[in-house]
Amino acid sequence: MLHSSYASFSGSEQLKADPPTSVLISNTFTIEFWIRPSKEQFLENEARSGISTFKNQPFVIAPDDDQVLNNTEASVAISVGTNGISIYEVGKNHFTPTLVFPCVVEEWTHLALVYHNRIPSLYMNGKFVKKGILSRRRKIVPHFCFGGHPSYGYFQGDLQEVRLWNIVRTEPFIQAFFKKTIEHVEDHMIRYWPLCKETTAQPVIKASFPTTVTPVDSDRKKLLFTFYIPSGGVETLNRQRFYALSESDIQCDFLYTQSGTGLQNKVNASVFVTNEDVKIKEIISKGSYDAIIVNTDYLLLKRLRHLGYKGHLIYEVQGLGTDKEYTNAYLKGHAHSYIKNYSDAILYPNTPHLINAFQQYFSSKSQFCFHNCFDTKQFHYQPLPKHPTPIIGWVGRLEDNKNWRDFLRIGADIIKHSSDIKLWMFEDNTLSTPTEREAFERLLDQLNLRSHLTIYANQPHAKMAEYFSTIGDSGGFLCSTSKVEGFGYAVLEAMVCRCPVLSTDSDGVKSFIIHNQTGKFFTLGNIEEAVREGIELLTDKALRETIRNQGITHIIQHFSPQEYAVHFKQMLSQL
């Protein structure tokens, strides 16, 4: 119990949230609340389908006649009595308990219902207690009609602090925060009803309770994203957010100031390639963009203003420099005045060194920080014929920050333990310098790796799903040796394709990798440690399968296109 006041239900009242159903999320979400029931319920047997015949349940969150659901959809209803908790799914010709947990609930109790890919799990006072049955319906949505329904039954007891999240709230997060009040907008929170205003529920009324999430303007927006070159992680991000934002009625165009290999990855959007002022001015004049998002190229901020652009300019950074010291020097140096004077806001991923740097040097500037997105429906695991020997992969450019030298040294030492290992390197060979290329060739000969190495240059992005899947199924892994990563899309893509990852402990991949749970870390520059961790990935089959399974689950939970679109629209509404 968090508050001294709460909503009380005597067994004949109903409070309908307005709107009752959240259309933003489905299949994966978390509902939390504090409850004190005063009536028992009938505990039915769990089932995947059918229609319950018992109609007098104490539904604290009830089904509602206003819902229009087809044969593939269902909404969630929660019945809580002093003798247990039941989770029902309600839809057309479908009314069945998919999770039933007998227990004593007589004092104030915190409950969290976590749906993950249509499977419900129940937590009491921060502790996991029961997993339910996978739904047969393709779409499960949260629905909020508090107190009951005349056809199904009314709740008796007290209720407060109802929260809806669009992610899986894991046990550590539930335990850490369920006893704390909400004082500001929380990441991933969609709806919030405190129910602590000394209110008593009244019969069948519409109730719109305070929410911490600011309503988003529904008008169609038109955006332009800019970057130097269509290659690497930013090019991948632009395609991913095109799909995410298009689904939310936001038009996305792209401007690159030079050509690059990423142009082979087709996207159904306007993609401009020019560095000429006259052409750029024509693009922004005809485009009438609500906002332009300028990635990294701070000089372009001033340039766009001088070319006549009057809309919002957002300065975005995904990765910055070869180390944290460079990032700090960059932002407090020449770039500082351009970002301060010509941008309206700053956008960056949830990467610790970027967060610290921008908050230090631009504390008065509007800043937005949220995870990038990835559409696992477009890019995913593909079952292919198994490669006869394990493969260790690497993705990057032959440059200092991607740290190709350490990859070759790690590979050479692992081959000493297992001579059948193959190395696959994926690179954009248009971006390396002759000096770096020559150093690469020399080290190949010094380490005697030519017979083990295959180089894949400038591969189409869609093809990479096949390569990552093959590496994962071969018994191998992706090795990421970068000194600094702003986000690290290659790591994420490998995990989505069930390819385990061994990575340097770079800030940009800490959102993906939990050591020995969703991947493996090694200390930058410690070749011996990397070899030891790599050999464990090759030989410990149980750990390997755990990492493969939990890796893809983690990405699906935390980097959904829908979540990205919600954050992006909230950002636009606040500018």
Describe this structure in words.
It is built from 14 helices and 30 strands. The protein has 575 residues and is an alpha/beta fold. The strands form six sheets. Strands 1, 3, 8, 9, 10, 15 and 16 form a seven-stranded antiparallel sheet that branches. α11 links the parallel β28 and β29 (501-504). The longest helix has 18 residues, at 541-558. The chain is globular. Mean pLDDT is 88; it is low at 198-218.
Which key terms come to mind for this protein?
575 residues, seven-stranded parallel β-sheet, 14 helices
Mean pLDDT equals: 88
Proportion of residues in β-strands: 25-35%
List the total number of helices.
14
Radius of gyration: 26 Å
Number of strands: 30
Gross morphology: globular
Span between termini? 37 Å
Low-confidence stretches: 198-218
Structural class: alpha/beta
Largest sheet properties: 7 strands, antiparallel
Helical residue percent band: 25-40%
Map the helices and strands.
Layout: E1 7-9, E2 15-21, E3 29-37, E4 59-61, E5 73-81, E6 84-91, E7 94-102, E8 109-116, E9 119-124, E10 127-131, E11 139-141, E12 143-146, E13 148-149, E14 153-154, E15 157-165, H1 171-177, E16 189-193, E17 205-206, E18 221-227, H2 232-246, E19 250-256, E20 271-273, H3 277-287, E21 291-295, H4 298-306, E22 312-316, H5 324-332, H6 334-342, E23 345-348, H7 352-361, E24 367-369, E25 391-396, H8 404-417, E26 422-427, H9 434-447, E27 453-457, H10 461-473, E28 477-480, H11 489-496, E29 501-504, E30 520-522, H12 527-539, H13 541-558, H14 561-574
Parallel strand pairs: 2-17, 5-11, 18-19, 18-21, 19-20, 21-22, 22-23, 23-24, 25-26, 25-28, 26-27, 28-29, 29-30
Antiparallel strand pairs: 1-15, 2-12, 3-8, 3-15, 4-5, 5-6, 6-7, 8-9, 9-10, 13-14, 15-16
Helix pairs in contact: 2-14, 4-6, 5-7, 8-9, 8-12
